[in-house]
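Journal club prep, shared notes

We agreed each person brings one worked example of a sequence with its structure written out as tokens. Mine is Addiction module component. I'm keeping it raw so we can talk through how to read the token line rather than staring at a rendered picture. Sequence first:
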Amino acid sequence: METIRLEFQPNIKAKILELLSSFSSDELKIVQENPEFEQTKNMLQSRIDKINNGTAVYSTFDELDVLLEETISKYED
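Then the structure, token by token:
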């Protein structure tokens, strides 16, 4: 199957869904998009930009281990 993303005005949603409902579930599956998609996409692009322009801050394995231990102990109780 292929996937496409549609952007449309809210007032035509019913018409689009009516048209799409004429296809069988084997032919077409409507997938709801994650509402945080754009926010996540922008955050990831920002991180990629920092890596590419050399401003990304990295942690050592020891620093990561301490952070993970602190996080685990916080939720163990």
